[in-house]
Amino acid sequence: MLLSGSGGDGVSAKMSTAAVPELKQISRVEAMRLGPGWSHSCHAMLYAANPGQLFGRIPMRFSVLMQMRFDGLLGFPGGFVDRRFWSLEDGLNRVLGLGLGCLRLTEADYLSSHLTEGPHRVVAHLYARQLTLEQLHAVEISAVHSRDHGLEVLGLVRVPLYTQKDRVGGFPNFLSNAFVSTAKCQLLFALKVLNMMPEEKLVEALAAATEKQKKALEKLLPASS
Fold first, then answer.
1. In this structure, are residues 18 and 206 in contact, taking their beta carbons and an 8 Å threshold?
2. What is the spatial distance between Cα 85 and Cα 71, in angstroms, rounded to a whole number?
3. Which residues lie across from 113 on neighbouring strands?
4. Which residues, 6 or more positions from 167, have their beta carbon under 8 angstroms from its beta carbon?
5. What pTM did the predictor assign?
6. Of the four, 64, 138, 154, 219, which is 20 to 30 A from 130 by CA?
7. Cα–Cα distance, 79 to 72 (Å, whole number)
8. Coil, strand, or helix at residue 108?
9. Distance (Å, whole) CA 31 – CA 40
């Protein structure tokens, strides 16, 4: 998904070495023209500029919210929208109300649509809204009191958009987690197109995460043989 239609061949090649899937990006208009055989998922990335420093020396830069789901996977707040009864935004806001509390997004927050791969025909829509750090914190507090907290949503998490000196701590370690469906790709895509992380840092973090996962697998193989 990162970075179909958003970078040169060199960038795509680097991303491919970091094992990032590329999904086809389509416009909102094209997505709305898809037939009834397609399902629509809508998710929201809420973020805020963060001037803080970890340990007084590592810039936080931005705070991005994701959530731990009931299935143990990380994802963005949102879900499937039944286009027979809801517009994309109305359906998204309905789901957000269950998991985050009082928050409403509009078409102005729309960021992208991508076609997913696999047996299920799903178009994944991503919305993004920048808040103040205070507003973001208010969302975190509200989420604890929402209907789905502790059930379908096990808690919100902030994405660490920095890399520590060992080149693994922070964002690379975060990318080593398990993500639902297109969530990881949507995160990387948004960080790229919203200019929240330099392209070379994305590549480095992806490569470090892939290498960590490879080494972990190699340690398990002798024990299982």
1. yes
2. 27
3. 26, 125
4. 204, 208
5. 0.86
6. 154
7. 16
8. helix
9. 9
- 73 neighbors 109 (Cβ within 8 angstroms): no
Taking only the tens place, the pLDDT of each residue in 143-167 is: 999 999 999 999 999 999 999 999 9
SS3 state of residue 137: helix
Secondary structure of the chain in HEC code, one letter for each residue: CCCCCCCCHHHHHHHHHCCCCCCEEECHHHHHCCCCCCEEEEEEEEEEEEEEEECCCEEEEEEEEEEEECCCCEECCEEEECCCCCCHHHHHHHHHHHHCCCCCCCHHHEEEEEECCCCCCEEEEEEEEEECHHHHHHHHHHHHCCCCECCCEEEEEEECCCECCCCCCEHHHHHCCCECCCHHHHHHHHHHHCCCCCHHHHHHHHHHHHHHHHHHHHHHHHHHC
> Which residues are paired to 49 by β-bridges?
62
How many Cα atoms occupy the beta-carbon half-sphere of 208 within 13 Å? 20
Q: How far is CA 79 from the centre of its chain?
A: 13
Residue whose tokens read 């992208």: 112
Report strand pairing: 74-75 vs 78-81.
Answer: unpaired
Decide: helix, strand or coil at residue 109. helix
Is residue 149 within 8 Å of 99, Cβ to Cβ? yes
The mean of the pLDDT values for the chain is: 87
Q: How do residues 48-107 score in pLDDT, each as one tens digit?
A: 999 999 999 999 999 999 999 999 999 999 999 999 899 999 999 999 999 887 789 999
Nearest to 133 by CA among 66, 14, 51: 51
